[in-house]
Each structure stands twice: as C-alpha cells, then as structure tokens.
Amino acid sequence: MNRAVNAYADMVRRICFVHLKNRHDTEDVFQNIFLKYLLYEGSFESGEHEKAWFVRVTVNACTDWLRALSRRRWVSLDALAEESAVLDNPSREILEAVLKLPEKYRDVIYLFYYEEYSAVEIAKILGRKENTIYTWLSRAKDILREKLGGEWS
Amino acid sequence: MSGAQNVIQKSMEEIRASEEMKQNTLRYLEAQRTRQSRRFFQRRQYAALRYAVAVVCVFFLAGVGGYSVYSRPVSYISIDVNPSIELEINRFDKVVSAKGYNADGQDILQHVPLKNISYLQAIDRLLQDAYYSRYLNRDSQLVLTVVSDRSDAMLEQIQANDRFQAYGAVTYSSDTACMNEAHQHEMSFGKYRAYLELSQYDDSITVEDCHGMTMGEIQNRIRSCQGHNRGNAEGKNGPKGHQNGHSQSHGHH
Q1: Among residues B148, B140, B126, B121, which one has the least CA distance to residue B79?
Q2: What is the ipTM of this complex?
Q3: pLDDT digit string (tens) for A21-31?
Q4: Which of A47, A143, B42, B188 is surrounded by the most beta carbons within 10 Å?
Q5: B64 and B81, same structural domain?
Q6: Does the distance separating the beta carbons of A38 and B33 come in below 8 Å?
Q7: Would you call A6 an interface residue with chain B, using a CB distance cutoff of 8 Å?
Q8: Where are the alpha helices (DSSP H) in B95-244?
C-alpha cells in the first residue's frame, strides 16, 4: 500500500486539485481512492494499467463527489487560497486559468500536458471517443491561449 | 506545444500530495483494513461461503434425488435354476441390485457382474456365461419370475431372447406380498412361488425342504403330484398358480 501511495499520491492529488474546491474535499476523495485500491479485487497487467486505473477512478471519484454535493462545476479563486502560499505567481496564473476551464477540459489538459498521455490513451482511460478528446483538447487550448496569451505559446 | 506543456508541467509540479496527506491516508487505510475492511472481507467470505454451501446443497439434493430415483427399484426379477438370483430393476430398466439367495446364486454373482445394465442385457449375460450355463442341463429347469406393474411387457421382451427359449425356460409373474413372504424365508420369490405351487399338492412339503431342492426337482415334484391328482380326482382341473392369487402362470412346459 505504501508503494501505491508513494507512486500515485501526487497524480491523484493533482487530479483532485483540478476538480475539487478545498483541501478537505481533496483529502476525503484522496483517501477514498486509495481505499478503493485497497479493496480492488482485480489484477493489473502492468504499471501503466495500474496508473490508468488510478486516473480513471480519481476522475470519476471527483465527478461523483461534486455531483453528490451539488457543487459548482468550476472552481473559483478560493480554491487556490490554501495553495497560494506554495505557488509562485506565474504558476498561480496558469493554474487559475486551468481551473476556470469547464471540468471535462481540465482532465484532458492535465492528462495530455502533464501525464503526457496521447489523446487515444485519454479516450481509453476516460471511456470517451477519441474525437471527443480531440475536440475537448482543442477547445481547452483555445481558451487557455486566449487567457494566457504569451505565456501559453 | 512544448511551451504550453512546460507551462502546465511547471505549474502542476508544484501541486503535490503533502507528506501529511500521505501519512493520514495510510493511517486511514490501516484503520479501514482492521475494522471496516475486515468486516467487508468477512462478509464477502461468508457470502462466498453461503453461495458455496447453497451450490453444494443443490448439487447434493439433485445428486441424492437423482440417485434415489435411479436406485429405487420398481420391478423385480427372480431367476432360479439352482442358483437363485434376484434382480432389482429401476424405472430406467437398469439393474440396480443383484442378490444371490443361495450359495450357488452368490457364487454366480461373484463371477458375472449384472449391476447397472438393462435387465435384458443382464439376463442375456447370465445365459451366455459359461459358469452359469453349467447349471443348465437336461434335468434342470430355468424359471424366471417377475414382480412388476408391467410384468406382461417385461416377460414379452424376456421371452424374445433366443437363448432363453432354447433353454426351455418358463416364466411367471408374482406380486410383492409373495416376494415379501419369500424374503422372510430367505428365499428368492421365484423359488418361493414354486414352493407355494408344490404345497398345493403336497401338504408335507416345507420351505426348508425347498431350500435344499433345485427348481428342476421342485418342478418334477409338482408334475408328479399333478399326475397323481389327476389320477385320483378324475374330471377335476389341477390348480393353476397359487390359490392366494400370488402367482399366475405364464409358463409352458
């Protein structure tokens, strides 16, 4: 279990971050995801398979959490209040822009740019059509480009 | 593209799970593992156990039910020469039990397996067997007696056997009351039927006497008594079968 927490904690944390409003929610979802892993009875063919499982479960858990609480689907600047202490200004600006994206775009942006999954892989993990992922990526990039201008280039 | 990627990566890099968050999670998981998850697993285990028990019960009952249907005899055949053998036949016409009612009968069954084949096969196997056919000679009499709700149909099939006819076998049908009486005397119901027939003519004959006699000897006694009766009581018909109606002759001598 220590291995899984060490291997995937940051990724789970980041996916939670792009979805959830505050640290308290993040911590709850974070713990539930690893509990799901603890109780998962299937087997993983590879490390990649396991990682993809974590991505999918985390995205779903965040979505479910927000749906259950009828929270807003996007996150305001408040979400960054707790993080701001550790973020420098450029990062904060970027993340704000990412967090203002519609929720479904945030996952693909994170998975595409940070985890470096291809659109095909993202489609597989999230259970969407490839074309959908291409569309979301394209729209998300347009929005970010518009907001961030030079920094995004 | 790489610029955008760098920007996102750099920003995201700063978002990390704190050590505190990891430790809290590990503690939470440990607690869940020892409490909730244990109960969860136990429930799963018991659920699995319950399913397993249910499945075993279903198979067991189906097996027991099937076996009891299979092993329950519905017809009985007594084959008597000197060896006295009784076959129990299930509703599928299979022999489910074969019992020797005298030493010769028991000896035959040691050599000729008759269980779990059809009664027609069993009779054919018996008549083909060299060990059994030693008992079938000019002085012997092969008698086959059936107790069944469909004894007529069974006897018809049995009589179609060429060997059966070649040995000049005679057939009778009897009933369960006669069979039960026979078993009380440790005698096959085929031989007991013959004893009852003989006792019609000879009051002095006992079951014990018949125990020591072959079917040929009993039949000879009956014939001689019948001849004697005809001589003494002119115009009277000799008895056919047992007076209690326990037996009904299908035989022909």
Answers
A1: B126
A2: 0.74
A3: 777 888 888 98
A4: B188
A5: no
A6: yes
A7: yes
A8: 103-111, 119-128, 130-133, 151-159, 162-166, 176-184, 189-201, 207-211, 215-232
Give A36-82 pLDDT, tens digit per residue: 888 888 888 888 899 999 999 999 998 888 877 764 545 555 555 55
SS3 of B89, please?
strand
Facing A91 at nearest CB: one of B4, B10, B21:
B10
B170: β partners: B143
Among candidate residues B74, B77, B73, B95, the one with its CA nearest the CA of residue B174? B77
Euclidean distance between CA atoms A26 and A16, whole angstroms: 6
Distance CA A65, CA B29 (A): 19
For residue B239, CA distances in Å to A46, A147, B170, B232 come to 92, 120, 17, 14
Q: Which of A6, A110, A113 to mutate to test the interface with B (most CBs of B within 10 A)?
A: A113
Same domain, B59 and B131: no
Look at chain B and report how many structural domains it folds into. Answer: 2
Looking up tokens 């960054």 gives A80
- Structural domains of chain A ordered from first start: 2-151 (1.10.10.10)
pLDDT tens digit sequence for B162-218: 888 888 899 999 999 999 999 999 999 999 999 999 998 888 889 998 988 999 999
Would the CB atoms of B8 and A34 count as touching at under 8 Å?
no
Asked if B100 contacts B106 with a C-beta cutoff of 8 angstroms, the reply is: yes
> Do B178 and B229 sit in the same domain of this protein?
yes
Residues 92-121 of chain A whose Cβ lies under 8 A from any Cβ of chain B: 92, 94-95, 98, 109-110, 113-114, 116
State the pLDDT confidence band at B233, using cuts at 50, 70 and 90: very low
The amino acid occupying position B19 is E
**B110 has a pLDDT exceeding 70:** yes
Cβ atoms B82, B135 nearer than 8 A:
yes
The helix/strand count (H/E) of chain B reads as 12, 6
Three-state DSSP at B148 gives coil
The amino acid at B146: V
B5 lies in a domain? no
Q: Which residue, B79, B77, B105, is CA-closest to B93?
A: B77
Domain that holds residue B159: 73-249
Nearest in space to B195 (alpha carbons), one of B175, B173, B214: B214
* Contact state of A113 with B4 under an 8 Å Cβ cutoff: yes
In which residue are the tokens 């593209």 written? B1
Quick one: which H or E segment has residue B2? helix B2-13
